[in-house]
Design goal:
alpha+beta; four-stranded antiparallel β-sheet; three-stranded antiparallel β-sheet; 27% helix
């Protein structure tokens, strides 16, 4: 593949993610010092986790797959101005994404929650729950065997 084709492919990939809204590093709890081996890039359409030192792993989760966002702050995190954000997803690789010891926690949590809702509306995937009750084989009496009509 030529360099021009690679550049065009990279540009298309970047455009699909949307604009970079936040780039936040996981931090050491003691002094809130950024830990450079894991960071989170939060775009309009994608949440990207980049981790590693020698070997780099980059994992993406589409915003529309994030169903709930939780913010927790321990006593020591509050003293350092840090938070832990947990995103509950329907993603195959990570059911929960934990962003530990990040600054601007409430702002980032609110952004992820709002953007995930917008992304679901844009993709028309508003309801993410499995409502397949009554469809297929169901075990109503709890004997471990499907109760068919």
């Amino acid at each position: 593949m030529s360099k021009i084709a690679n550049a065009a492919q990279n540009e298309a990939s970047i455009m699909a993610k949307g604009d970079l809204q936040y780039k936040e590093y996981g931090r050491l709890l003691l002094f809130g010092i950024p830990w450079p081996f894991k960071h989170f890039e939060i775009y309009n359409n994608v949440l990207t986790i980049v981790s590693g030192f020698l070997n780099i792993k980059e994992d993406d989760c589409f915003m529309y797959r994030i169903s709930d966002v939780e913010l927790t702050r321990s006593f020591f995190q509050r003293m350092a101005g840090l938070s832990t954000i947990t995103c509950f997803t329907s993603d195959v690789t990570d059911k929960t994404i934990v962003m530990k010891n990040v600054k601007h926690g409430r702002e980032i949590k609110d952004f992820i929650y709002q953007e995930s809702e917008r992304a679901r509306i844009r993709r028309r995937t508003v309801n993410m729950q499995d409502i397949s009750f009554g469809m297929g084989d169901v075990d109503l009496d709890g004997d471990g065997m499907a109760d068919n009509d």
